[in-house]
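step=encode ok
step=design start
structure_in=
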């Protein structure tokens, strides 16, 4: 609006940039090939929200103070210092990022967006006491293991995608699905899979290996298998509760869904009728009415 003709604008911060007014936001914005470089401090305080676009390189100090404070980052950057997110605070990581400095979730919310790898997430430096961790971006877990534990707590797949690798769970920790469309692509899940939320769902691509228990009991909770593939492993799928419609859904024409010999599917649903099927394996006219030859 003010410098529409200017191109390739960079910002270097050597001081302190803080969004410190409740309910208001502050934007740091670059343009073209320009970047934002920080050797000082960037902060969300007192209920303010700081947006940083074009972040590049080591980001030095990223900090919070007060509840309802948020920092949202995008660009190609490194969290080289530990970031602590306390109760009522939100850190959103977009773009391409790594976190060698570590992330501490102390009752706050961390949204793992953009694109990142298992190594970049740095689970060895990930400290959690309460709060919420959402995978909202694309997590390249190929050849690696996301090890959930009592120390890490549950991770929520909230509109995000996990590509490859294995997810394990100990100490009651599990992978939780939400009502935002998410994807598991060629993943082995050796933890429990929780689809108990309202309309909890995900799409499975390139086969799903389940070695834990997948529980479907939310209203319209479902797994959409896109294309011919196999649900294999040693796990169980449990349909429970009386919420309307849960399913393992074959979701493309001319496909076959194979249930492996080690998989157990059990339970049921008391909502069956001709219009709204209860617990479904295969085809359902509400979710894939256009698919044929399943």
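sequence_out=
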């Amino acid at each position: 609006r003010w410098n529409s003709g200017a191109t390739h604008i960079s910002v270097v911060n050597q001081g302190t940039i803080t969004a410190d007014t409740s309910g208001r936001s502050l934007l740091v914005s670059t343009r073209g090939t320009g970047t934002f470089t920080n050797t000082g401090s960037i902060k969300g305080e007192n209920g303010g929200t700081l947006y940083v676009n074009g972040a590049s390189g080591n980001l030095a100090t990223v900090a919070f103070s007060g509840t309802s404070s948020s920092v949202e980052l995008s660009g190609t950057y490194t969290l080289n210092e530990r970031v602590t997110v306390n109760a009522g605070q939100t850190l959103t990581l977009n773009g391409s990022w790594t976190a060698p400095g570590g992330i501490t979730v102390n009752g706050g919310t961390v949204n793992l967006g953009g694109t990142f790898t298992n190594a970049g997430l740095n689970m060895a430096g990930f400290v959690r006491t309460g709060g919420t961790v959402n995978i909202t971006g694309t997590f390249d877990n190929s050849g690696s293991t996301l090890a959930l534990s009592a120390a890490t707590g549950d991770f929520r797949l909230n509109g995000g995608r996990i590509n490859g690798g294995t997810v394990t769970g100990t100490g009651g920790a599990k992978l939780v699905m939400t009502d935002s469309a998410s994807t598991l692509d060629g993943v082995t899940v050796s933890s429990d899979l929780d689809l108990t939320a309202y309309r909890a769902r995900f799409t499975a691509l390139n086969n799903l290996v389940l070695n834990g228990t997948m529980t479907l009991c939310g209203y319209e909770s479902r797994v959409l298998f896109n294309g011919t593939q196999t649900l294999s492993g040693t796990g169980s799928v449990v349909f429970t509760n009386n919420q309307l419609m849960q399913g393992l859904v074959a979701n493309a024409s001319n496909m076959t869904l194979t249930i492996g010999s080690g998989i157990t599917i059990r339970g049921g649903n008391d909502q069956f009728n001709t219009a709204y099927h209860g617990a479904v394996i295969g085809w359902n006219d509400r979710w894939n009415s256009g698919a044929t030859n399943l």
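step=design ok
step=annotate ok -> DSSP finds one helix and 35 strands in the chain.
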